[in-house]
Design goal:
The complex is a heterodimer of chains A (about 300) and B (about 300).
Chain A (H helix, E strand, L loop, with lengths): L2 E12 L2 E12 L3 E5 L6 H8 L7 E6 L2 E2 L4 H6 L1 E4 L11 H11 L4 H15 L14 H12 L6 E5 L7 H16 L3 E5 L3 H4 L4 E6 L2 E6 L1 H7 L4 E5 L3 H8 L5 E7 L2 E6 L2 H14 L6 E5 L3 H11 L7
Helix pairs in contact in A: 3-4, 3-5, 4-5
Chain B lengths: L4 E10 L2 E11 L4 E5 L6 H8 L7 E6 L2 E2 L4 H5 L2 E4 L11 H11 L7 H12 L14 H13 L5 E5 L7 H16 L3 E6 L2 H4 L4 E6 L2 E6 L1 H7 L4 E6 L2 H10 L3 E7 L2 E6 L8 H6 L6 E7 L3 H10 L1
Parallel strand pairs in B: 3-8, 3-9, 6-7, 7-8
Antiparallel strand pairs in B: 1-2, 1-4, 4-5, 9-10, 11-13, 11-14, 12-13
The chains are: A alpha/beta (about 300), B alpha/beta (about 300).
Chain lengths: ~300, ~300
């Protein structure tokens, strides 16, 4: 298996603050790799190091076969980057945007014409080539931004919350394109706060307080929460959630609709004891049932077990 | 029971564009109501009209019994409105921002300490009281915005995508604050582009291109979806996908990471076909099981109709 990214003990400090703390992982060629974590977890700093924008304090890494420390320029030519606030120019046409990015990436001559036609075809914008980009629906803009990010055919693509705010159908179309790239060997790095996007990844890495605290397939991560979630029905949801957040054996308690979802160390015994425990605190409980954990439950629990997020 | 918010054919045009196209629905008092839809569906325009800051082209809405078309100023006393670009003063501290809004809304001095205590309790901002707002993380800024909007204890709270760009941990705190408001009898209308989040609301209106395409409790909408959904894992997902798409009884099949989500026709409820579809394709079936549909599936189904 060829590795697109391999990092060993990657560390970045800003003064006394260790933003990224000895992170080690590999990403296989063609893999769709999700990057998650609360604000301040070190995701952005890691991505900046991987894209050659920031030098590591210690540790090593290779991206597309090039050394992070010594060959950052070579890395920059081999990656594509698409941010959630796509850098498209609203007052340029679709074609002009493609031309602009082609120039940035050094795509010229006959290759330019070929790549432009490819990008228009891929994004489904052939009939809109002379339309102002600002007038396009968001889903179209997203596909155009993707096309522009890969004009130079980079083997590695970085996506930052790529489908924020688009409708499910556009999101589906977008991911179908990503799967096609991945099928042809492009490695895709996705950073997001949203489990709807995370579900599309082959593997997910979770960062907290600068450290990598979990790395696995979405289904395997879900299987880690071996205990089911308890759903507590009560007329006093917020008070229940607050009370449970400090209770023994409780990892996480959160509102879900009017009910409270509780992650506990042992579901069977907690289902017996929690109602009485709540009653003694003046909170009547109308029922306890078992529900399946969502990916978000898994992540929040892992972060809580690691001692919570940095702040906020 | 008189609705807290009542929309009647509420419509807003911008030139040729129908941003909001004849919305009619009610929000009951003390309800957590979700306006759900993608970017451009009309969520922000609707909230701005309900907040009295944008006049409807036609139609009307009663907010706390006051007409937004005839008395937009009157509406403003009944509500708190947190827009996507809520104005925080970045060079003031957390506490100074809240005090500023308390002054603006003329909150009596005697009531302030208790209210501040409650807001700090749920937002966990108390320990950051003296930090400049400009130095807060995205999630903390959103929580501070919410605290400022809530300092005058409105009857109705209108929130435009409060969780946009907020990480899952802070997002849970935000929902806790919203539920606490609801528990105190406040009506909350909140917009979001994320359908998994919408499942937390009492009622949702799914919006697409300015129109309501579904309106009900999330659980009812999910149950309304005909056909079952399966998650399939196979040794070669791409090949398996092709086979499944071509199989009879399959309405839709799509990749999700290394799994395939298959939506079946209603008549295929006892579908035996996963094994058959993959037989002879040189693909090993690793695992398959049923899953319940999410609101996202409901949305796809309604739009496709």
């Amino acid at each position: 298996m060829t590795l697109a990214v391999e990092v060993r003990d990657l560390t970045r400090a800003f003064g006394d603050f260790v933003a990224v703390d000895q992170v080690t992982f590999d990403v296989a060629e063609g893999e769709i790799f999700g990057f998650l974590g609360p604000n301040g977890a070190g995701k952005t700093t890691t991505i900046k190091m991987l894209t050659g924008l920031l030098a590591p304090t210690s540790g090593t890494g290779r991206v597309a076969g090039f050394d992070l420390r010594r060959e950052s320029e070579a890395i920059k030519q081999r990656i594509g980057y698409m941010s959630q606030l796509f850098s498209l120019y609203g007052d340029l046409t679709v074609e002009e945007n493609i031309g602009f990015f082609a120039g940035l990436y050094g795509v010229t001559g006959p290759r330019l014409a070929e790549r432009r036609d490819w990008a228009l075809e891929m994004s489904g914008l052939k009939d809109y080539r002379r339309r102002l980009t600002g007038q396009l629906p968001l889903g179209f803009k997203q596909r155009l931004a993707l096309g522009c990010a890969v004009l130079h055919q980079p083997p590695i693509l970085f996506l930052d919350e790529p489908t924020s705010g688009v409708d499910p159908i556009s999101r589906r179309n977008f991911w179908d394109l990503i799967y096609e790239f991945s099928g042809r060997g492009t490695t895709v790095f996705v950073s997001t706060h949203y489990m709807e996007e995370a579900e599309y990844c082959h593997r997910l890495a979770l960062m907290n307080r600068g450290r990598l605290i979990a790395l696995d397939r979405p289904a395997a991560l879900r299987a880690r929460l071996t205990e089911p979630i308890l759903e507590i029905t009560t007329d006093h949801g917020p008070a229940t959630a607050q009370a449970l957040q400090g209770a023994r054996g409780v990892i996480e308690a959160a509102m879900f609709g009017r009910a409270v979802h509780v992650v506990v160390e042992q579901a069977a015994s907690a289902a017996q004891t929690l109602p009485a425990w709540l009653e003694t605190r003046g909170i009547p409980c109308r029922g306890v049932t078992h529900v399946r954990p969502s990916l978000e439950d898994v992540f929040v629990s892992l972060v809580r077990l690691e001692g919570g997020a940095v702040a906020g | 029971m008189t609705p807290a918010v009542s929309l009647r054919d509420l419509t807003r045009r911008f030139g040729d564009v129908m941003a909001v196209d004849g919305l009619t629905f009610d929000v009951a008092p003390g309800e957590l109501f979700g306006l759900v839809g993608p970017d451009g569906a009309g969520k922000t325009t609707t909230l701005r009209m309900l907040a009295g800051v944008l006049r409807p082209s036609t139609g009307d809405a009663l907010v706390g019994g006051v007409s937004v078309a005839r008395d937009p100023e009157g509406v403003k006393h009944r509500i708190a409105y947190m827009s996507q670009r809520f104005g925080l003063y970045t060079d003031l501290t957390v506490r100074e921002n809240i005090d500023f809004y308390a002054d603006l809304y003329e909150v009596p001095d005697a009531e302030r300490p208790a209210r501040l205590q409650r807001l700090y309790h749920f937002s966990n901002l108390g320990t950051f009281e003296h930090r400049l707002a400009g130095q807060l993380s995205g999630g903390m800024k959103q929580k501070l915005g919410l605290c400022c909007a809530l300092v005058h204890q409105p009857e109705i709270l209108l929130l435009d995508e409060p969780t946009f760009g907020v990480d899952p941990i802070s997002r849970r705190d935000l929902w806790l604050i919203l539920h606490d408001m609801v528990a105190q009898g406040v009506t909350v209308v909140v917009s979001t582009a994320y359908l998994d989040e919408a499942e937390r609301c009492d009622h949702v209106a799914l919006l697409n291109q300015g129109k309501v395409i579904a309106l009900d409790r999330p659980a009812v909408l999910q149950e309304s979806l005909v056909g079952d959904m399966l998650v399939v894992r196979a040794s070669d997902p791409r090949r398996a996908l092709e086979r499944l798409r071509a199989a009879p009884g399959v309405r839709r099949a799509a990749l999700f990471g290394d799994t395939i989500h298959v939506t079946l026709d209603e008549r295929a409820r006892d579908w035996p076909g996963v094994r058959e579809a993959l037989e002879g394709a040189g693909v090993e079936l690793l695992d398959f099981h049923e899953i319940g549909p999410g609101l996202e599936d409901v949305f796809m189904e309604r739009v496709a109709r």
